């Protein structure tokens, strides 16, 4: 019995141990499963936590994605996005788990030049000048580009148009020069050519005329010059009667001299050629000097060079006179500076008389009775012991130093004394 009881006890113990092992195994398996679940959850949560958010703007599309990558190339490759030669990308890297990528796709710009339209691909940040270079378009000085060369491609709303300059010509100063222009006025062309118009110069069209291809602007140089010409104004000859010249001779008492007439005109020159002349003025700038010829009216050349308006001679003798006295005459001289009895200055042309017969101040014309000698015009101014010697008039011949022999040689002559006017 004791053995059976021991056997039962051993069996019970074995069962209990067997159950403990089973429970132990279940516990271990459960623990393993728990650890595995935690690991999977950890891996999944960690993976989500360490992914980057990327927003990609591509034309009109917006792509939002998560990526483990940081480089632009990998992010774009992950989305199967490719870039062309003239595409541009704005990307500043990943910051705080975020990345913003902006893709600017290339533009196809129509370029119109020389009657041809060419489609040129370009980047949005390039300029019109880059388009022209890519299209192998060369600009001349006067060509115009619309829009301007500095315009960004992204700002172009239509075509790029090149307006080519065309040839025009300017003819001036004997030369013709060609210029390439575009919508230029004639006045602007002159300025471009450096041609300055003087006051009277002109061109053959309006200054504000817009020039067309092949037009020629002709400059006409016009100048005016003041010209002077001179003419001789002949002098006149004046003949006058002189009581101091013999009636059988004449003498030039004043030489004639021609005058000058100055003519002023305005001469017009066109391109250096004289084309017209317009008179401006004509005046005598130098008066002629007349030639004066004295034609003698005296019988002989008078000794006295005095004259009077009262004396008019005809055939050598006075025309108008009060009376004629005939008598003896002689001649005298006196020292230089001597005076007369009447107080007059003693000079040739003053004579001595008997004032009882011929009062002082009487105007006389004295000539020999035979006409061989003429004393001429005289004034009664002096006296002397004349009557006692039967002398009517004593003729003064000048100062003693120079004229003494003249008075001696005179001697005595019969004379006619024409009284032109009586003195007081």
Describe this structure in words.
With 424 residues, this protein is of the alpha+beta class. It has 5 domains: 52-104, no CATH class; 107-163, Phosphatidylinositol 3-kinase Catalytic Subunit, Chain A, domain 1 (Ubiquitin-like (UB roll), Roll), CATH 3.10.20; 166-220, Phosphatidylinositol 3-kinase Catalytic Subunit, Chain A, domain 1 (Ubiquitin-like (UB roll), Roll), CATH 3.10.20; 225-293, Resuscitation-promoting factor rpfb fold, CATH 2.20.230; 310-421, RlpA-like domain (Barwin-like endoglucanases), CATH 2.40.40.10. 19% of the residues lie in helices and 43% in strands. The chain has 5 helices and 26 strands. It has helices at residues 2-49, 72-78, 128-134, 186-193, 400-410, and strands at residues 52-58, 61-67, 88-91, 98-104, 107-113, 116-122, 144-146, 160-163, 166-172, 175-181, 202-203, 216-220, 222-233, 237-246, 250-254, 259-270, 273-286, 291-298, 313-314, 317-318, 323-334, 350-353, 363-368, 374-382, 391-399, 412-421. The strands form 7 sheets. A 6-stranded mixed beta barrel has the order 21-25-22-24-23-26. Strands 2-1-4-3 form a 4-stranded mixed beta sheet, with helices on one face. Strands 6-5-8-7 form a 4-stranded mixed beta sheet, with helices on one face. Strand 9 and strand 10 form a beta hairpin. The longest helix is centred in the N-terminal third of the chain and has 48 residues, at 2-49. The protein is rod-shaped and about 175 Å long. It starts with a helix and ends with a strand. Mean pLDDT is 86; it is low at 1-10 and 22-50.
């Amino acid at each position: 019995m004791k053995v059976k009881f021991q056997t039962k006890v051993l069996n019970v113990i074995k069962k209990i141990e067997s159950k403990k092992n089973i429970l132990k195994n279940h516990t271990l398996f459960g623990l393993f499963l728990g650890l595995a679940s935690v690991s999977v959850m950890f891996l999944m949560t960690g993976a989500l936590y360490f992914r980057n958010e990327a927003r990609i703007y591509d034309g009109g599309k917006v792509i939002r994605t998560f990526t483990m990558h940081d480089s632009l190339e990998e992010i774009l490759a992950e989305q199967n996005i490719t870039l062309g030669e003239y595409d541009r990308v704005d990307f500043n890297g990943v910051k705080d788990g975020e990345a913003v990528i902006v893709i600017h796709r290339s533009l196809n710009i129509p370029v119109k030049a020389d009657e041809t339209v060419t489609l040129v691909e370009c980047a949005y940040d390039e300029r019109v000048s880059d388009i022209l270079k890519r299209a192998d378009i060369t600009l001349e000085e006067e060509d115009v580009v619309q829009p301007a060369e500095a315009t960004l491609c992204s700002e172009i709303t239509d075509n790029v148009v090149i307006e080519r300059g065309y040839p025009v010509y300017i003819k001036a100063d004997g030369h013709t020069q060609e210029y390439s222009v575009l919508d230029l006025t004639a006045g602007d062309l002159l300025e471009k050519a450096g041609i300055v118009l003087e006051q009277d110069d002109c061109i053959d069209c309006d200054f504000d005329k817009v020039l067309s291809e092949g037009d020629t602007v002709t400059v006409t140089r016009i100048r005016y010059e003041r010209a002077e010409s001179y003419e001789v104004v002949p002098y006149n000859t004046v003949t006058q009667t002189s009581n101091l010249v013999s009636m059988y001779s004449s003498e030039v008492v004043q030489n004639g001299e021609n005058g000058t007439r100055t003519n002023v005109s305005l001469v017009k020159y066109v391109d250096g050629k004289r084309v017209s002349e317009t008179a401006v003025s004509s005046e005598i700038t130098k008066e002629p000097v007349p030639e004066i010829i004295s034609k003698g009216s005296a019988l002989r050349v008078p000794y006295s060079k005095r004259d009077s308006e009262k004396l008019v001679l005809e055939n050598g003798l006075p025309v108008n006179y009060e009376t004629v006295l005939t008598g003896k005459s002689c001649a005298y001289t006196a020292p230089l500076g001597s005076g007369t009895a009447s107080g007059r200055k003693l000079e040739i042309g003053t004579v001595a008389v008997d004032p009882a017969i011929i009062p002082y101040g009487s105007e006389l014309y004295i000539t020999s009775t035979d006409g061989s000698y003429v004393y001429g015009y005289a004034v009664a101014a002096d006296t002397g012991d004349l009557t006692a010697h039967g002398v009517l008039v004593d003729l003064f011949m000048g100062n003693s130093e120079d004229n003494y022999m003249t008075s001696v040689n005179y001697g005595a002559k019969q004379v006619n004394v024409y009284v032109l006017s009586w003195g007081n």
